[in-house]
Batch of 2 targets.
Target 1
Amino acid sequence: MRRVWLRITSRRAGCPATTAAENPAGMTKATSMSMSDRQCSSYDNESAGFGDSAQNSYSYDASRAFVAGSFIWAGFDYIGEPTPYSSWPSKSSYYGAIDTAGFPKDVYHFYKSRWTTAPMAHILPYWNWSAGTTVTVFVYNNCDSVELFLNNTSQGSKTMSGSAQRLEWSVAWASGTLRADCKVGGSVVASDTMKTAGAAARVALSADRSTINADGRDLVFVTGDIVDASGVIVPSAGNSVTFSVSGPGQLVGVDNGNPIDTTSYKGTSKAAFSGKVLAIVRSTGAAGSITITPTSSGLSGDPLMVTVR
């Protein structure tokens, strides 16, 4: 019997990125550590010295039948080993597919498009630019083809043929809605939209679950989105949000995923990063209802209820 050996590659995908920190210059930037804001592009065009971009790493492995899989460093950003910005105030890694707050970065959706079969599409970047800007638009997907629309006007349909891992358009920016229709066999099976956001108006809370255990240990993770009057996340929003908790719960942590935010994780307030902020609430051991309330200067915000039982 012929023995076939498969190996798990040692090639590591160390692709720095930050949540929704795209910029037009990011597509042509040749080196890391070149942005004054100490953030990285979300276009998967940078890599740490020990690895390669997510797409290059995937292509390398997928083209070799003897490779069983990849070693991805890292799944989540973590405190310490800041790369590629290695000095203060950078305090965490940049190359996770998910940031320290648990918010998926754009590259997360690249992996999802390669590793899952349920039809999906993901547009990047966000859609707040200025007149006269031509924006490079990526659509990660696992479909046969994708048609891109701007304000219901087609920007063309493209096919996932050969070794394609994403589809790409150059689009003259205009305020409104960008939509990607993902097709299999000619039928739309998934869509994604990206809308132009207006001014920040409200802190919208959501929780990873509505009920937690009354054991003094269980946690609920509460996301605060800075949204405009229509509920669209404002991608540049950095509003500070203060969280208050009443009932059988205790605020035990706050985060935003920003690798250069050195404020305490144990405070009651945190500035949003790319329009998002996180609060972590723990049960105290008693049953009842926890109320989490956000406050932010100039913004409204409705409380969120979580059941403890």
Target 2
Amino acid sequence: MINIIPMETINNKTNWALSARTKERIVNLSSYFFIILFIYAASSKMLYHQQFEHQVSQMPMFSGIAGLVAWIVPFIELSISALLLFNMTRLIGLVAGGIMLVVFTLYLVIILNFAGHRPYSDGGLFEMLGWQGHLRLNLVCIILCYFGVMLRMNSDYYKY
């Protein structure tokens, strides 16, 4: 009889550990995904800057500073992408990206539950997702980011 799971694993509750190389690959792939995601989001906001600024100005909390917000958000997204590019700053980039995703997800929840008017400002693929789809995507991305941070912090190759 072939044992798929060794008995000592079941009896001793031994964890299946990921190799350092596997952790590195998962962190790198998730980082590349976030680089593409944030560059796409920033590019979309900059290409349709006037539309983005107008839609930001329709939100009561940002109406007075819409011009500033319309430039700061893509700048932050591009900055996070730059942090994710380099091994030395990848953990900072993952944490910053996770924070940005959590903040934007909270904003989406507020808009979905309390706003009568729902301006949409991303354009492109995100607009096709709609509000509910965008919320689901953000939740998946937050989970991916969390695992990236955890793997990166517990990785053997994470050395300065």
